[in-house]
Specification:
By secondary structure, the chain is an all-alpha fold. It contains 11 helices and no strands. About 75% of the residues lie in helices and about 0% in strands. The longest helix is centred in the N-terminal third of the chain and has 29 residues, at about 75-100.
Length: about 290
């Protein structure tokens, strides 16, 4: 690596750091409460996981652009544009998750610190899934700039739609009124729902990361991955229930009795199952 390439690489990283720091400072400035009090003095986990998710979209989303085209100063424009795009999507994601989880308008900025941990966990899961979708759209090459930008926009929207549909399907599978339970602050429901969204994002990442081919082929691969994600995860969910959650701990008792340790294990295993599924999907699509 020559001196110019090293300088460009440093500047790419610096752009991301400045964007994350600037976003963190700005959100603290526009809210009616102080981050120091909420995060460090009160240990407000519900607020913390939302902030972590927002940063994850910015950093993970643009990470595939870091280290690319180090011989071109124009790569800085791509990284800068990418982090702005990721930040805007994180803001939109905040509105989407309020509607998706609570069926309400966006929570006022002044009330972000009142969001329960259960809802914050689902928002974190959505943000992680969104981050993977955004990252995937920046990987690979397209025949021309117009197709490249169009594919980023189309597959970002498709990925967000896939995440929203995944949550809706989960509300149909989960016992009881999932939205009401999470709004009431029940953490186990939030853990599982957040894991489902992250896992779906992982599988979609496997379908979307790579060079653009043709619209029919790319969309068909995306649709196949979405179907595999929905079916595969719920098959895995019941297999985990049968072979891992033994004794007095089942999918039903986890939520009925708020067994947080078992819910955390279930969430972890769902994401782990998504990793090999994502790898297989990526091989098939390529």
């Amino acid at each position: 690596m020559n001196g110019t390439a090293a300088l460009i690489a440093v500047l790419q990283v610096l752009i991301v750091i400045l964007a994350v720091g600037g976003g963190w400072w700005l959100l603290n400035a526009v809210t009616a409460f102080d981050d120091h009090d909420e995060l460090w003095a009160r240990s407000n986990w519900g607020y913390l996981v939302q902030r972590v998710g927002f940063v994850a979209v910015q950093v993970i989303g643009v990470s595939s652009l870091i280290g690319q085209d180090l011989n071109s100063w124009g790569s800085l424009v791509w990284v800068g544009g990418g982090v702005v795009w990721a930040t805007l999507l994180a803001i939109v994601g905040f509105w989407i998750t309020d509607w998706m989880i609570l069926r309400t308008r966006a929570t006022p900025l002044a009330a972000l610190n009142t969001v329960p941990l259960s809802v914050g966990l689902v928002r974190l899961g959505f943000y992680l899934g969104l981050a993977l979708v955004v990252r995937a759209t920046f990987i690979g090459h397209a025949p021309n700039l117009r197709t490249s930008l169009a594919s980023v926009a189309v597959f970002t929207v498709a990925g967000i739609a896939g995440l929203v549909i995944a949550f809706h399907l989960h509300t149909l599978v989960a016992p009881g009124n999932l939205r009401a339970e999470m709004a009431a602050g029940r953490v186990t429901e939030g853990l599982e729902s957040g894991a489902v969204l992250t896992a779906v994002g992982l599988i979609l990442y496997g379908a979307m990361a790579g060079d653009f081919t043709t619209w029919p082929e790319s969309l068909a691969g995306f649709g196949m991955a979405l179907g595999v994600a929905y079916v595969g995860l719920y098959v895995a969910r019941y297999l985990i229930d049968w072979f891992v959650l033994t004794g007095e701990c089942t999918l039903r008792t986890i939520h009925a009795q708020q067994q947080r340790g078992a819910a955390a294990l279930l969430a972890f295993l769902l994401v782990m199952v998504a990793l090999p599924i994502s790898a297989v999907v990526n091989l098939y699509v390529e």
